[in-house]
Amino acid sequence: MRPEQWEIFKKAVRREKLDKIPMALIVDSPWIPGYLGIKHMDYFLDPELWFQSNLKILQEFPDIIFIPSWWMEYGMAAEPSILGAKIKFWQDNTPSEYNMLFRLEDVDRFPEYEVECDAFAGLTLHRISMARQRILDAGYILPMVTSRGPMCTAGFVRGTTEFMIDLVEDPKGAHKLLDLCTRVIIDWLKAQQKVMGDTVESIFILDDIVGFVNEEHYLEFAHPYLKRICDAFPKDWVKLYHNDAEVDACLDHLPDTGFNVLNWGKQRHITEVKRRIGDRMCLMGNVNPLEVAVRGTPEEVKDETLEVLEGSGGEGIILSVGGGTSPGMPRENILAMLEALNEFNAKRAAEAVATAR
Fold first, then answer.
1. In 3D, which of 34, 9, 46, 50 has the Cα closest to residue 141?
2. Which of 142, 195, 265, 301 could pair with 336 in a Cys bridge, judged by C-beta atoms 3.0 to 4.6 Å apart?
């Protein structure tokens, strides 16, 4: 993103007064290759194609803040690959992860990890170092380091079903795996920060598996580890949490972790989320990402966007879809969101002028 966009994003997160509500979209390899009509394998392995692809998206939609901006990733492969998960690549889809931790007690037998060298983490860091100066020279910055969360990483390494069973049948072993994953994530984020340089002042954690547990299990197996991650970085940084699964069990507690932005899914209406979160977090959402944003008409997208904006009350919100930008979301639907936002912002401005008189 451009430096001025990052300043707008930070002000929105801090709930400062803005003339206009901003719009931000999470974009990465599930959406970009399909949108541009290129193969995923080429996107991952051709540095020039990767650079030009991201540049084209940024230039095509200059009024949208893209998160995390120039995301160097191999789908969700980096974090689980550090801990030995098998990764399978496809020509026309993001990589698949296959768990290799068949017995939870084998966590103790894992070799020491080195995020700077291990598997796709090491490759990602090298690719960042290759592209960094060129990105800066083009007038953009790299403000955000990114990782899957502890439960998500544990689920990839152990197998999601197996890990859910572990929470009940072997909680001590589950905590041991979560502790390891949390240490990996903190080190992984700091390694990215080191390579990206001094423009970094934000972390972005994605963990949908948190949405698979009840409130009791959230408080035991997710909350303390999410808080550990936030506590490992400066208090004044932007800390964005993404979970587009169910957020009911964690919603009331998330502000206490240290995250100050929530990007959530379609399951909970913005009015409920806003009521429960209050002014403790900035909300980033919540247009239905699949049934509306991908499959809907521009008119339906515009109507839903206006409904979300009205539900927000025009405060404490960054307009987005409810989660990441889904594969297949077309240009006309992105523009429909922008059109609705411009109308809403213009209406707010007119009302403010009328009130001032």
1. 9
2. 301
* H/E element, 160: helix 160-169
pLDDT string in tens for the chain (357-residue length) = 999 999 999 999 999 989 999 999 999 999 999 999 999 999 999 999 999 999 999 999 999 999 999 999 999 999 999 999 999 999 999 999 999 999 999 999 999 999 999 999 999 999 999 999 999 999 999 999 999 999 999 999 999 999 999 999 999 999 999 999 999 999 999 999 999 999 999 999 999 999 999 999 999 999 999 999 999 999 999 999 999 999 999 999 999 999 999 999 999 999 999 999 999 999 999 999 999 999 999 999 999 999 999 999 999 999 999 999 999 999 999 999 999 999 999 999 998 888 877
Model confidence, pTM: 0.97
Angle (CA) 99-105-111 rounded to 5° is 70
Rounded distance, CA 266 to CA 294, Å? 13
Give me the architecture of the 3-356 domain, per CATH: Alpha-Beta Barrel (3.20)
